[in-house]
Amino acid sequence: MIRRFSVVMLASISLSGCMFSPGQHMDTSQMVSDGSPESSRVELIPITPKLIAMDAATQVRESVPSALLSYVPGGYRVGANDLLFITVWDHPELTAPSGPQQQLDANGRLVRPDGTLFYPYIGNIPAAGKTIEELRAYIAERLSQFVESPQVDVSVLRFASQTVVISGAVLKAGQQPITTTPLSVVEAIGAAGVDPMNADLSGLTLTRDGREYRLDLDTLNRQDSQLQGVYLKGGDRLYLPYNDLKRIYVMGEVNQPRALSFKSKSMNLTDALGTVGGLNQTTSNGNAVYVIRGAENLETEPAKVYQLDAESPSALVLATRFDLQPQDIVYVGPAGVTRWNRLISQLLPTASVLGTGASSVNDLSEANSR
């Protein structure tokens, strides 16, 4: 009687296990719209050549804003806090009043916060806003009243009036001066050094005159890149964001499920699967490769679930052209035999316990009958 009960119990557990097998799997039948609120939250979209072509047609290739490309740096203009070195040939008392044995900076002329500097015989000179050539001519003209045919030269010992600030995922954050040599975005980032593991190359932000411009450093890999022609001016701010928010979550029947960060504008599906070691060849279902997108906005719009039939290697061609977006979830479902094996592995301990219990009760009943 007890043995018969054990068999019935095992059969019922097996039947219930077929309906509720362990582990995650995606039931696409629930994504067929039947008019219910639940079915309207998810849209199943097969990844096909037509879908890839439609996405490519809607993508707009980013270009550098014309407002940035139109800026052409002019000659350097002296400003407050610049340190100048003024040379008057054949007049060392004017060139190096502190003596030639002193360091060069000791004989420099500092432009005061109000934009003026003091010079012997001339007095206060309105230096701010003048180019180096304009300042040289101004000093020579005023000095000619005291020195016959003065030969004047002006150079900048320390550039401090015009700076740009660089912050974010760089190795040397801080200020960089604008000098007599125009400073481009690429040169400024190169001097600061990009943090290769944590930077989001596609999210560089240039703030100028209260307006923000988005630039993609990754486009430098293209021959027609326009970034080389973007020059900075005093007061600009560059921010290179971190890529900690640019993550793709790969889970399911892959060899190394984990979250992936990426530093370029996008990562395609093949890259994501390859980074985690590919599909598990013994447990995965090649027809159950899904990309879940938009799950964080279910209150306003349905989530999109893209399905790739990866049973054929040719499907990887489509996967290579399917770009993922931050916060996408890549899920690879288990094969049917995998789910069945996991069910059996959980049922066997239960069956063993039932069998042992039944055997013990039966032995006890036989002992009592003696």
From TrEMBL:
<dbReference type="Pfam" id="PF02563">
    <property type="entry name" value="Poly_export"/>
</dbReference>
<keyword id="KW-0762">Sugar transport</keyword>
<keyword id="KW-0998">Cell outer membrane</keyword>
<dbReference type="Pfam" id="PF18412">
    <property type="entry name" value="Wza_C"/>
</dbReference>
<keyword id="KW-0625">Polysaccharide transport</keyword>
<dbReference type="InterPro" id="IPR049712">
    <property type="entry name" value="Poly_export"/>
</dbReference>
<feature type="domain" description="SLBB">
    <location>
        <begin position="246"/>
        <end position="332"/>
    </location>
</feature>
<keyword id="KW-0472">Membrane</keyword>
<keyword id="KW-0626">Porin</keyword>
<keyword id="KW-0564">Palmitate</keyword>
<dbReference type="InterPro" id="IPR040716">
    <property type="entry name" value="Wza_C"/>
</dbReference>
<keyword id="KW-0449">Lipoprotein</keyword>
<feature type="domain" description="Polysaccharide export protein N-terminal">
    <location>
        <begin position="73"/>
        <end position="156"/>
    </location>
</feature>
<keyword id="KW-0406">Ion transport</keyword>
<keyword id="KW-0732">Signal</keyword>
<feature type="domain" description="Outer-membrane lipoprotein Wza C-terminal">
    <location>
        <begin position="335"/>
        <end position="363"/>
    </location>
</feature>
<keyword id="KW-0812">Transmembrane</keyword>
<keyword id="KW-1134">Transmembrane beta strand</keyword>
<feature type="signal peptide">
    <location>
        <begin position="1"/>
        <end position="21"/>
    </location>
</feature>
<feature type="domain" description="SLBB">
    <location>
        <begin position="162"/>
        <end position="239"/>
    </location>
</feature>
<dbReference type="Pfam" id="PF22461">
    <property type="entry name" value="SLBB_2"/>
</dbReference>
<dbReference type="InterPro" id="IPR054765">
    <property type="entry name" value="SLBB_dom"/>
</dbReference>
<dbReference type="InterPro" id="IPR003715">
    <property type="entry name" value="Poly_export_N"/>
</dbReference>
<comment type="similarity">
    <text>Belongs to the BexD/CtrA/VexA family.</text>
</comment>
<keyword id="KW-0813">Transport</keyword>
<protein>
    <submittedName>
        <fullName>Polysaccharide export protein</fullName>
    </submittedName>
</protein>
